[in-house]
Amino acid sequence: TQLLEQSPQFLSIQEGENLTVYCNSSSVFSSLQWYRQEPGEGPVLLVTVVTGGEVKKLKRLTFQFGDARKDSSLHITAAQPGDTGLYLCAGADDNQGGKLIFGQGTELSVKP
Amino acid sequence: NAGVTQTPKFRVLKTGQSMTLLCAQDMNHEYMYWYRQDPGMGLRLIHYSVGEGTTAKGEVPDGYNVSRLKKQNFLLGLESAAPSQTSVYFCASSYSTGSRLAFFGQGTRLTVV
Asked: Among A31, A99, B54, B74, which residue has the least CB neighbours within 10 Å?
């Protein structure tokens, strides 16, 4: 069974601070994705990483895929209240016939 | 474009009742998924489909059935609802190749009393 472990599960910080969220697994994934979800809405894709060691930047967000394609991290620089939400990582394994599995999520609260 | 549309958005069932949740996508995606979301547990995969006429079990399939008779539709059925199935259900679809980024519906909030 493939599992994705996210940490931390909850994070409460002040505006302007930096933070990192981790997504770890013992399994190799073909690609790893990060989503953001707001209350009452479905998750919305932020980024996909497909190559081991890949780093992608989206404004103040930096995403990294581990060299072995088993883990990923999301780093937010100078967090803002608008970053508040649930962050989810998801892994796809093309050898597992179409499965897309999710971590348990990180609930981020950024206080002004 | 509508993207992924789920119906209904809210539903209250009595224990033992049955119901079907409908998911429709207009992006010609091959893959479709049903997830349930409970506090602190992220999204758990119930069933998924890699094409019309095919379905497969996910992480938590017990108590649910699915059908994919048409490429654009993926139905999730509860034959005999139980309070443990109280949850928010999300449908998603994705391409079968490349990064497989998924598009989600708005969710269905189901309460079983």
From this structure: B54
